[in-house]
Design a protein that fits this description.
178 residues; alpha+beta; Alpha-Beta Plaits; five-stranded antiparallel β-sheet; 9 strands
Length: 178
């Protein structure tokens, strides 16, 4: 038991090969008195997991932080548009996700095409009236297509899951220039 838990304020750094991704918490980091308490609680919900490569045409091009920033910007836009369509304020609405750098491969069975750095991006459906479950599924498909286009990927993989059980796996593709 920790009598006075403290929120971490130190940056968290992950290294993969020569790449480094650092997360620096922002804002105040108060010391809490007494025992921790359970905050918001909701039923097990939806999540979208994206697998996005960092290479374009076999050359390292992107950094995990660029994928994180793009996803956060797109999710903020999606939630703002959902709230606006319902005549709501965005005050108090959350977007959430996590980016995990990893080393992946993408190849045909008959030959080795590419080993590349990649990211797994987990996006959580934060329950709100601005985005119901059908909207979330639609928004995740839209986000997969946007990631494919913006990061010039041959494909992006999207896993949609509810309560930890995979509902669907979707592969997007953006035709390459000839």
């Amino acid at each position: 038991m920790i009598p006075h838990p403290v929120m971490l304020s130190d940056p968290v750094t992950v290294k993969i090969g020569s790449d480094t991704v650092t997360y620096q918490p922002e804002g105040s980091n108060p010391v809490h008195e007494g025992e921790p308490v359970v905050g918001d609680e909701w039923e097990a919900g939806l999540e979208g997991q994206f697998l996005v490569g960092m290479n374009v045409a076999g050359k390292p091009t992107w950094k995990p932080a660029q994928v994180r920033d793009f996803i956060e910007k797109e999710r903020r836009r999606q939630i703002r548009e959902g709230a606006r369509a319902r005549g709501m304020s965005t005050r108090g609405l959350d977007v959430g996700g996590s980016i995990t750098p990893m080393l992946g491969f993408w190849s045909k069975v008959s030959r080795h095409d590419a080993s590349e750095k990649a990211v797994s991006a987990l996006v959580l459906h934060m329950p709100s009236a601005a985005e119901d479950e059908d909207d979330f599924r639609r928004n995740m498909r839209e986000l997969a297509l946007s990631l494919t286009k913006h990061f010039d990927q041959d494909a992006v993989i999207l896993r949609l899951a509810k309560a930890g059980l995979v509902e669907k796996v979707i592969q997007t593709a953006w035709p390459r220039k000839k």
